[in-house]
């Protein structure tokens, strides 16, 4: 399902509910989401490690989980 269809489905569900608790929870989530991106809260050292890891994955520099576990048992 694409993002626009997801939004429409979510709007339908919101319009159908009369539960104030659900509406309040959704409102809190959306307000919190709009305030900050978790990426902005990370220290630069963590950002660098994540970006390095993504680059390694893109370059095929990965190890199968099972192989990794075998080496560390």
Characteristic key phrases:
mainly alpha; elongated; 0% strand; 73 residues; 2 domains
Q: Helix content range of the residues, please? A: over 70%
The end-to-end distance, rounded to whole angstroms, is 41 Å
Number of domains: 2
Write down the overall geometry: elongated
Supply Rg: 20 Å
Helix-strand category: mainly alpha
- Bin the strand percentage: under 5%
Kindly report the oligomeric state of this protein: single chain
Mean pLDDT over the residues: 89
Topology as H/E string? HHHHH
Q: Could you tell me the number of beta strands?
A: 0
> Largest beta sheet, briefly?
none
The total count of helices amounts to: 5
Residue ranges: pLDDT <50 for 5 or more in a row? none
Describe it for me?
The structure is a single chain. The chain is built from five helices and no strands. The protein has 73 residues and is mainly α. It folds into two domains: 35 residues; 37 residues, no CATH class. The longest helix has 16 residues. The mean pLDDT is 89.
